[in-house]
C-alpha cells in the first residue's frame, strides 16, 4: 500500500473500461467493508477505499456528529476537503481518472458533501441511505455528473423528506439524479445491489 494521507485499500483495475470507485464505509466500518460490494457492482473497476479518520466510541466515521442525524457542519466541511485532497493525491499516485463515489450511510453523506464542496473530485456518486450533509447547500455546478440515490422508506435514521431534499438539491445543481426509494430500512437489500449493477451498466 502506498503511503498516502488516509489508511486505505487499493485494488488496481482489471477492466480499464470501468470507472474507478471510491468506496466510503458507514459508521463503524473500515476500508475493507465495501470491497466486495465494489467488485460485485462494477467488476474490474479500480477500487480505492479509505478509512474515516474520526472515531466515535471506537467506530470509524468520516466526520463528527453531535447526535444521530445531527452533524457538526464545520467538521463536515473540513473533512470533505481533507478527503477530497486524499482522492487528488491517490489519483496522482495511482494514475486514476476521477472516481465514482459509492458511499453507505455516513460514507454517502461525506460523498454528498464532497459533491457540493469539491465537485471536480468525483465523476459521479452512488449514495446509499444518504441525508442532507449541509443545511446551506453551496452553489455548485454538477452538470454532467450522474448520481444514484437509494433510500429506504422504512429507514429509522433518515426521514423521507430529508433524502428527498438532498435529491432535489443535487438535481437543482445540475446533476443527473436517479432517486430510488425502496421498501427497506437503513440496511442494504438485494434490490440495492440490483439497482447498483443496472446503474453501473448504463
Ligand atoms: C451519519 O452520522 O452520517 C448518519 O447519521 C448516518 C450514520 O452514520 O449512522
Automatic annotation (TrEMBL):
Matching InterPro entries: AB_hydrolase_fold (IPR029058), PLipase/COase/thioEstase (IPR003140)
Organism: Microvirga terrestris
Gene Ontology terms, MF aspect: hydrolase activity
Pfam families from the UniProt entry: Abhydrolase_2
Organism phylogeny: Bacteria, Pseudomonadati, Pseudomonadota, Alphaproteobacteria, Hyphomicrobiales
Residues of the Phospholipase/carboxylesterase/thioesterase domain: 13-196
UniProt keyword annotations, A-Z: Hydrolase
Keyword Cell membrane: no
Protein name from the UniProt record: Alpha/beta hydrolase
Amino acid at each position: 500500500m502506498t503511503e498516502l494521507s488516509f489508511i486505505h485499500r487499493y485494488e488496481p483495475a482489471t477492466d480499464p473500461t470501468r470507472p474507478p470507485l471510491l468506496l466510503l464505509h458507514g459508521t463503524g466500518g473500515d476500508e475493507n467493508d465495501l470491497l466486495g460490494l465494489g467488485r460485485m457492482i462494477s467488476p474490474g473497476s479500480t477500487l480505492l477505499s479509505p478509512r474515516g479518520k474520526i472515531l466515535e466510541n471506537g467506530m470509524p466515521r468520516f466526520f463528527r456528529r453531535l447526535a444521530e442525524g445531527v452533524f457538526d457542519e464545520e467538521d463536515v466541511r473540513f473533512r470533505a476537503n481533507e478527503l477530497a485532497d486524499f482522492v487528488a493525491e491517490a489519483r496522482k499516485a495511482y494514475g486514476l481518472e476521477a472516481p465514482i463515489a459509492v458511499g453507505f450511510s455516513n460514507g454517502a453523506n461525506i460523498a454528498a458533501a464532497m459533491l457540493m464542496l469539491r465537485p471536480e473530485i468525483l465523476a459521479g456518486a452512488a449514495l446509499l441511505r444518504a441525508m442532507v450533509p449541509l443545511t446551506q447547500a453551496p452553489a455548485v455546478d454538477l452538470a454532467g455528473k450522474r448520481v444514484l440515490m437509494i433510500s429506504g422508506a422504512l429507514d429509522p435514521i433518515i426521514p423521507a423528506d430529508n433524502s428527498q431534499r438532498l435529491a432535489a438539491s443535487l438535481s437543482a445543481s445540475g446533476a443527473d439524479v436517479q432517486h430510488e426509494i425502496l421498501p427497506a430500512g437503513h440496511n442494504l437489500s438485494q434490490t440495492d445491489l440490483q439497482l447498483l449493477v443496472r446503474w453501473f451498466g448504463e
